[in-house]
Amino acid sequence: MSFSAQVKQELMRVRPEKHCCMLSELSALTQTCASLRLSGGGRVRLVYETENPALAKRIFLLLKRRMEITPLLEFNRHKRLGGRRLSILTVPEAESTRLLVALRMLQESEGGTVFKGVPRAALTRRCCRAAFVRAAFLGAGSVTSPDQEYHLEFVTTGGHADALMKMLEKSGIQPRVTKRRDTDVVYLRRGDDVVSCLALMGAHGALLDMENTRISRDARNQANRARNCDEANLKKQLSTGEKQARAITAYSLAHSLGGLPPLLQELGRIRMLHPEASLEELGQMLAKPIGKSGVNHRMRALMTHILEDKKIGDGNDDQANAGFIGRNTLQPHPD
Ligand SMILES: [Zn+2]
After folding, report:
1. Residue 183 C-alpha to ligand 1 middle, in angstroms?
2. Distance 140 CA to ligand 1 centre (A)
3. Residue 131 has pLDDT above 90, yes or no
4. Could you state, in order of their start, the residue ranges of all structural domains in the chain?
5. What fold does the segment set 3-202 form as a domain?
């Protein structure tokens, strides 16, 4: 089961008991799952649609208990959903108007204009804010598994994002909003915000799972950082050795190493054979082993020969080139 499905299953078990919270939950479910269908004479019917049968049952019971409305329940196999069953709850016309007024989405005095209101308590009481956010998640939310990334989102339509943003902000959460096709997606990207939102909604089991994953993820990240650092150092060492081996090989093909001072010839031959070796390791392979700093000094002298040869070679001056190779630039090592 996905983490999202796990959270929803847990939230389904949280039942709003208070009258105020039931209305708040109905408000969020109406905003996320319902649409208005026009009937004759400018009258409307509210129609709820969901693929989740448990959510359909929840809406049915809320309408009955809180509003004494019995919606018409139908099922429909939906081609768009790959043949999955869609639960459809239709609220009769007269009851639709009463429900919209109770949800503060309709004011009869204003000629029956439907707008994006929410019950006052949803904005002022903590219990109702929690009920609203929980229902909005059940209707239109999803959350990514915390071992991948921190991301929780609500997909809203019809300008309902504002109310949800306000409620999250009042609960100390920092939501962001973005457009995705014709929807406004309200989302959380910080681990702390996702945790706060799970706590607000009452998904305490999922919250514990997430905290456990966070702890092991942080430990894993730390180990990965250390390993990446080692690998980067190793890479640097490899690429320097490879560069040296390549330069020495190119030089020996053009001039042979025979013209170089014997100590540099020896080091050059060993480097060509062992591009991956560290300077310390190279030092141990010499006939007369020397330490890292000695190898470093000798390697610099060798590379100076090769690089200066390249500069002169680029000028196509064979005379100067030949004269240079004969010169011994190996200085005595200060140690
Ligand atoms: Zn309440």
Report:
1. 28
2. 21
3. yes
4. 3-202, 238-322
5. Endonuclease I-creI (3.10.28)
